[in-house]
Amino acid sequence: YFMRTSSSITFVMPYSDVNITAGFVGEFTAEAGLHIDMGESGRETYSIPSDVKSFKLYDAGGASGTCIGTVDTLTLIAAAGNVFNVSGSIRFDYYEGTKILKIFDGYAEDRVLLDMNGQNYSFNGMYTSGNVLSLVMELNMGVSGECYHSDFDLTVAVENVSDFHKVVIESAIGGSVASD
Questions:
Q1: Are strands 82-95 and 120-127 parallel, antiparallel or unpaired?
Q2: How many CA atoms lie within 13 A of 137 on its CB side?
C-alpha cells in the first residue's frame, strides 16, 4: 500500500519478494508537468516520443526564473508525421550582456521562425514545416554577471500533420475544384 502527502508518495513494502511494473496514466503534456530544460552549453538533441502531446521549455535555469549564462543549441525531433507548434512569452526584467534566442524551422541555420534580440516577446502558433525544431540560446553575462527574467514561458505542442492539413472542397459555381 502507499501513503500520499501533498508532495510525495511513500510505498510501504511487505516482507517478501515484490514485482513492480511501472505504468503511466494519462497523457504526456505540459499541463501534467512535462518539461525540457536547455543545457548550459553545447549541443543537445532529443527525440520526442510519439505519445508526447506538449511540454514546457525552460532555459538552463529551469522554471525557477534564474537564467544562467549559456550558449546552447537544442534540437528536438518528433516522430514522422508530426510538426511542432511553439507559443509563449519571454520577458527579461534585468539583463546586462547579450541575449539572443533564435528558433528555427528544422536544424539550426535553417529557416528562422523567431530571432529575439531584445527585451520582450510574445508569440502564438509558430509551426515548423516538418518534424524538427531547433533553438539557439545565447546569454553572455555582462560585467555584473546578473540576469533575471520574470517570464520564460514557452509551450511546445507536438501535432500530427493529418489533424490539421485536411482539404475541404466546397462547391464551386461555374466550374469545379479538385484535390489529391
A1: antiparallel
A2: 24
Q: Give the span between the Cα atoms of 25 and 35, in whole angstroms.
A: 17
Phi-psi region of 119 (alpha: psi -120 to 50; beta: other; left: phi over 0): alpha
Answer for the pair 40, 65: CB distance below 8 angstroms, yes or no.
no
**Cβ atoms within 10 Å of 38's Cβ, excluding its own:** 23
**Number of Cβ atoms within 10 Å of the Cβ of 101:** 20
H-state helical runs in the chain? 161-164
Q: Judge whether 164 and 158 are in contact, CB under 8 Å.
A: no
Residues 6+ apart with CB under 8 A from 35: 55, 56, 57, 58, 63
The torsion angle over the Cα atoms of residues 19, 23, 25 and 31, rounded to 10 degrees, is 120
Give the global pTM: 0.71
pLDDT digits (tens, 9 = 90+) for 87-132: 998 776 555 555 677 899 999 888 999 887 766 778 888 999 999 9
The residue behind cell 550582456 is 97
81 Ramachandran zone, left/alpha/beta (phi>0; psi -120 to 50): left
Judged by DSSP in three states, 164 sits in: helix
